[in-house]
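Chapter review. Work through the record for Small ribosomal subunit protein eS4 before attempting the end-of-chapter questions.
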Amino acid sequence: MHQKRLSAPRTYKVPRKVKKWIVKPSPGPHDKDAVPLLVIVRDFLELADTAREARRVIAKGEILVDGVVRKDYKFPVGLFDIISVPKMELNYRIVFDEKGRYVPIEVEDHDRKLYRINNKTIVKGGKVQLNLFDGTNILASNEYKTKDSILLKIPEKEILQHLKFEEGALVMVTGGTHAGEIGRLKSYKVVRGSAPNLVTIEIDGKEYTTIEQYIFVVGSKDDEKPVIDLGV
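Structure tokens for Small ribosomal subunit protein eS4:
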């Protein structure tokens, strides 16, 4: 299934007027802004010149996403995903550029990925399940809270670090006009009714207010830089 390039999400860093159609991602991880693996291979990493070549590379199992071989050329790829090409010893993390579009950066810490906790549920046996931002679910203790972030070793999904959603935490904006920018969480305001809660952050000495859904904790209040390589 395809979609028109002009109507593709703004996270797609691809020419809009060269061709009319572009591949649409399959249902799966991430949200509607996910990019299909074919576009990552052909347009982002330039490992193929055509869609046919990209599909062939993917079908041969030469591309890993978060340490797992993916052969579906429509597999959805999103923020902080790790794209690996073992044959070429290449590893990339998907991050934002200055315009809020997804771009790959080559990284060495490709064995870890940062996840935001979107929700928690109690499953069979009374165990706590963390529902993460990209659709991943893992079992953990009840010490982790919604909006916190956890650093996982991939593909094992082993928790390496817990980053709390709290004043002073290092955060990244994931939506709106400041998407991709990093700052400090200054305050959090719970809004009554159906309106989203608000977060005030400080970026380069200036304060901005955005909705909580656009905030992703990338470091503790004691960290001077994100706990993963974001190319900044």
